[in-house]
Amino acid sequence: MTKTEEPAQNSSAPTYQCRLSLSTHTINHLADLLRRHLKAIRSRWRILPPGKIAVIVLAVLRHDQRLADMAGGNNVSESTVRRWRDELIGLLAAQAPRLDRALKKIARQGGEVVLIDGTLIRTQRRIGKADRRNYSGKHHHHGLHFLALTDENGRLIWISAARPGRTHDNTAARQDHVLAHLRAAGLGALADLGFRGLDNDILDPVIVTGYTASRTHKPAPGEKEANRVLAVGRAPVEHGFAHLKNWRILTKLRTDPARATRLLRALLVLTNIEVNR
Hints:
Helix content: 40-55%
Largest sheet: 7 strands, mixed
Distance between the termini: 56 Å
Strand content: 5-15%
Shape: globular
Order of helices and strands: HHHHHEEEEEHHEEHH
């Protein structure tokens, strides 16, 4: 066997440039976060400056650039880019708000209601019985389910932990004690029919879900109007999901599902920085 020290990637391969569709404010925020972290752990040297590392990680998150491609274009190893990505995702996820604090902040700002909804992010299908729980019968593909809360304008304020794709919205909301946190903060929530049965308080409901139709019951004109008003009020929550899913790494998640929660919360922080700049 002949031993060689040449890199696996071809260093003479052609490279190209692409535009990173993010503001300078977002890049500077991530670079400053990394500088403070390096100072805290007393790490005086990295092969690239923090600003360049921030751009590389944001390119991976925003455009789903492959780690090997980013490594080859910057003359570093793929494992180094992976380490930078995981490091910055952890730092960003630590800044994501807790549910109780996020709701209390909305209440202090004079808000009265929040918008709640669940969605699914696609994942690669894995081999084995353990992946069966990630199959969503509603969406007919494998993925991870998570809940999100937004304010009345559609700004994301909280994201739940990622759960198997077969998880129902009500199940996730009960596990996160969403109803109890809403009551403690004195807020209401607008939700779709997937959350029916979560709040059974008829006299003082916290979660409003609208009216359903069945074979034996057709909604009255007043109920139809109430559903229309509720749909208009809930529309901004879809804008929040749209902003989050602009990060193309979520198009079809290839990372370990166990790390998806940190990734989602890191993207929540980045989305709010980008949207509210």
